[in-house]
Amino acid sequence: MAAIVFDLDGTLIDSAPDICGIANALLDRVGRAPITLAETRDFIGNGAGVFVARLRAARDLPDADHDRLLAEFIRRYDDAVHLTRPYPGVEEALSALLRAGHVLGICTNKPIRPTRVVLRHLGFERFFETVLGGDSLPVHKPDPAPLCAVFEALPQAPEIYVGDSEVDAETARRAGVPFLLFTEGYRKCPVDQMPHAAAFSDFAALPGLVARQVSVDV
Fold this sequence. Notes:
The chain is of the alpha/beta class. It has helices spanning 16-29, 37-43, 48-58, 66-77, 90-99, 112-122, 145-153, 166-175, 206-217, and strands at residues 3-6, 13-14, 85-86, 103-107, 130-132, 159-163, 179-182, 198-200. The strands form 2 sheets. A 6-stranded parallel beta sheet has the order 5-4-1-6-7-8, with helices on both faces. A two-stranded antiparallel sheet has the order 2-3.
């Protein structure tokens, strides 16, 4: 058995289309040009506050607008689920991991309310014993404290973190846990520049990678 913690956006789900829609609704209200889906994916990863800061920088919005835009972004975020989809094979992989006796959690920089909303919308709540969002603690990834808190809430077992980004890789490194890298998410640099125990592009490979990592840890 392993305790496996997942990132959410860019790892289990592609939420960028919904987030792009929120961002562009905010930009439209202040008379700025929309951002692209590629820009949206580039801005995701360090939490809502950093996303809004990157959005402001990209469209030359003043620092004084930050708190208002962030509040409006978070208000709209709770219902931003209609264009979000799991990556292919995610549901099957999570089911297989549970059948193999593993325990699962989530550690994401997404705020906790929209995290729970999207998990409920997709029917994924049943997979996870513990879920921690970017605002669940005073700090968020790449600080290792949220990841460590999720592992502490799960039964004691060999620990594995699964994510898609430089933030996730750094979080795992700081926490001292093996990192499995999903290569089709929102990463911004080449795979070989990110520390990882293994990389995969297809979720069908994940149960086997977990089994091999557990055998190494044992």
